[in-house]
Amino acid sequence: MTMGNYLHSLRQRRRKRLAHSYAQQHMGDQRVAVIGLGRFGSSLARELMRRGWDVLGIDESERLVQRNSDFLTHSAVADCTDQEVLRQLGVPDFASAVVAIGSDVEASILVTTNLLEFDIPNVWAKAISRQHGQILERLGAHHVVLPEHEMGERVAHLVTGRMLDFIEFDDDYALVKTVAPEIATGVPLGVSAVRSKFGVTVVGIKRPGQDFTYATAETVIEQGDVIVVTGKTAAVEAFAELS
Q1: 3-25 and 130-139 helices cross at what angle (nearest 10)?
Q2: How many C-beta atoms surround the C-beta of residue 79 within 10 A?
Q3: Comparing 13-27, 62-76, 144-158, 172-186, which segment has the lowest mean pLDDT?
Q4: Most exposed among 23, 42, 109, 229, judged by the fewest C-beta atoms under 10 Å?
């Protein structure tokens, strides 16, 4: 299996778990344990705090914990490969936990196993390779992310195409921000028939100096407008290349 296919399969499995995740996140428990406070873990923890979540940040490194302690709800220097340590920190009572450990694959696997044995409803685990991700999935991790690979895939689309942004939501479906191609300008979207001709849907439009707004069948795209389109990945890629 290629890395691209593996990433697609991960996204597809994530979608099947969204209903469960949504239910957990809307039951009032907005606490999460982030284990590993390197670049990924600390960035994630900061964003969760910004969104109003209570975050317990844990790392073996006293330096990393001290660096992040001021903005975390709680923090601790601890070895989370030890189940008893996790119990003492109250982690089994959390509805969500993230294993953000970097290059120590063995520690990542052990911590993920511990969390799963506590029956934590939402266990997210960072993987640093396809093989690592497959192991975490086989263990039963509810969500596996490969941040470096997924960001690399996204940037590759921006470098090699004429896209201003690219997000792939699920297997073979994407959203792209691009400068409107001339072929779609000058007439209402309903007349230009972008959807039937190119297999994409224009969902948003931004004129220079203005905010983004929804696109309708009556919207007339002008030269220089930035648009947001959705559709099959190959279709939106091809459409963006017309710019």
Answers
A1: 40
A2: 13
A3: 13-27
A4: 23
Place of tokens 């972008």: 194
Here the tokens at position 20 are 């469960």
CA 129 to chain centre: 16
The 8-class DSSP code of residue 234 comes to: H
CB 147 within 8 A of CB 126: yes
| CA–CA separation, 186 and 180 (whole Å) | 11
Long-range contacts of 53-58 (CB under 8 A, 24+ apart): 54/30, 55/31, 56/31, 56/32, 56/89, 56/90, 56/91, 56/94, 57/33, 58/33, 58/34, 58/89, 58/91
Instruction: Say which residue the tokens 């230009």 belong to.
Output: 192
Query: By C-alpha distance, which of 168, 171, 189 is closest to 236?
Result: 168
Cα(203)–Cα(160) distance, integer angstroms: 23
Distance CA 215, CA 94 (A): 42
Q: Which of 2, 11, 3 is nearest to 173 (CA)?
A: 11
Characterise 213 by phi-psi region: left (phi > 0), alpha (psi -120 to 50), beta (else): beta
Helical packing angle, 3-25 and 147-160, nearest 10°: 120
Give the model's confidence band at 188: pLDDT under 50 very low, under 70 low, under 90 confident, else very high.
very high
CB atoms within 10 A of CB 114: 24
What band does 5 get if pLDDT is binned at 50, 70 and 90?
A: low
Q: In this structure, what are the phi and psi dihedrals at residue 177, rounded to the nearest 5 degrees?
A: -105, 130
Rounded-to-integer distance, Cα 15 and Cα 68, Å: 32
Q: What is the pLDDT of residue 169?
A: 78
